[in-house]
């Protein structure tokens, strides 16, 4: 993923390269959106016209897919992305209290980033870790049976 110091031209070049790699594949939109987010951390709204033209879709169709799926971001995330599982098992085991604790500690809501750019908070609707509910994912690492003190430690590490 490109870091926060990467010039916009590099981001545009990455998006152009990914479009060229995907545009002739059947059903290219979802794999392309995933590739863009995997490479730069989000799907910039400014790229929708370029994507729509390459895939012969309307800008509204591209926008609709990006906004329908909670996985896709339309803005650059913080240095760390914390996802709190909101699936039934995690809710039954206390994820709602964990979510409230995270929002209070970070002083943000879902889909927001802390003022120090350390953490972006997102909801996720299953991490596949139900036996260890409640679960949280920080970047690509899944943590199970997360308590408020465990969450505090993850936040402290993200801010370090």
UniProtKB/TrEMBL annotation:
Chain segments annotated as transmembrane: none
Cofactor requirement: [2Fe-2S] cluster
Record note on cofactor: Binds 1 [2Fe-2S] cluster.
Coiled coil: none
Binding site for [2Fe-2S] cluster: 85, 90, 126, 130
Top-rank taxon: Bacteria
Pfam families: 2Fe-2S_thioredx (PF01257)
One example GO MF annotation: metal ion binding
InterPro entries associated with the record: NADP_DH_HndA-like, NuoE-like, NuoE_N, Thioredoxin-like_sf
Keywords: 2Fe-2S, Iron, Iron-sulfur, Metal-binding, Ubiquinone
Family: Belongs to the complex I 24 kDa subunit family.
Protein name per the record: NADH dehydrogenase (Ubiquinone) 24 kDa subunit
Source organism of this protein record: Methylotenera mobilis (strain JLW8 / ATCC BAA-1282 / DSM 17540)
């Amino acid at each position: 993923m490109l870091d926060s110091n990467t010039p916009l031209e590099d981001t545009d070049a990455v998006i152009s390269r990914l479009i060229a790699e995907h545009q002739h594949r059947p059903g290219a939109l979802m794999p392309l959106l995933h590739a863009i987010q995997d490479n730069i951390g989000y799907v910039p709204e400014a790229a929708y016209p370029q994507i729509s033209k390459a895939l012969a879709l309307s800008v509204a169709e591209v926008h609709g897919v990006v906004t329908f799926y909670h996985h896709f971001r339309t803005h650059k995330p913080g240095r760390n992305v914390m996802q709190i599982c909101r699936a039934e098992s995690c809710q039954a085991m206390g994820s709602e209290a964990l979510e409230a604790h995270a929002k209070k500690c970070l002083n943000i809501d879902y889909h927001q980033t802390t003022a120090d750019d350390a953490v972006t908070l997102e909801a996720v609707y299953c991490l596949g870790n139900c036996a260890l509910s409640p679960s949280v994912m920080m970047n690509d690492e899944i943590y199970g049976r997360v308590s408020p003190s465990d969450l505090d430690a993850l936040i402290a590490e993200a801010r370090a």
